[in-house]
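Feature request disguised as a bug: please show the residue count (284) next to Glucose transporter GlcU in the output. Example input:
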Amino acid sequence: MYLLLALLPAVCWGSIIFFNTKLGGDAYSQVLGTAIGALIFSILLYVFHSTPLSPLIWIVGIVSGLFWSVGQSNQLRAVQYMGVSRTVPLSTGMQLIATTLVGVILFHEWTNLVTILLGSAAILCIIVGAVFTVINDKNSAKQDKKSSMSRGIVILLLSTLGYLIYVSLLRYFNINGWAAVLPQGIGITVGTLLLTFKHDPFNKYMTRNILTGVWWGIGNLGLLLSLPHIGQATSFSLSQTGIIISTLGGIFFLGEKKSRRQMVFVIIGCCLIIAGGVMMGFTK
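Example output, currently without the count:
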């Protein structure tokens, strides 16, 4: 039962960018719709599972949500340069490496030789896997594609920074995930409005993408319910499998062109990133 709940984040979060792209609109209308949907779900969740909120929880939760908006909006911007099937594996790999390094340096997670060796092997798997997902055909390495890839990677670095702070703040201040749901939802919406209002995001595509925000909230609920029962290592590992959905969804359902050679590298790359995520989970 709880293993199935732990798979919800993988299914929901792994398919968010796929749904964003399928529902249409630019990155700004997509992320604003997602944010509003997340806020609606957060309010409903708080009504049915209310938790006392201190000033610290409000401040940290809202700031955490602000940085989520930076991560999500820039991830969607990167899709416009690299496509879903490249953006998601790269983004996943960057997030895993960044959160791991913060965990080691700030939270002292790797405390013995086994975790150091396992964690180092995991990072190596993730780096190689991420490189494999962006390999071009020899005949298709044109200058404009190189330029788009470079822009996309720079945008993803900013996205990774946003996600890293979003994840790390609650842990640093030791705030329960249930307590942060509503403040984070408010921070997500406020941050997204600040980032998007100049780009006229209020259109039919924004309304459509509210569904993806609710979908994100369902994944978040699955994580909150399963974490106390199956532990962080298992739930963290399972959440990494979501990249398969978005990567292969981008190729088969969004029509992103891949040669046979690229498909082999993409699949191997996804498997390596997942393997790295699983090993990383067991170092926690």
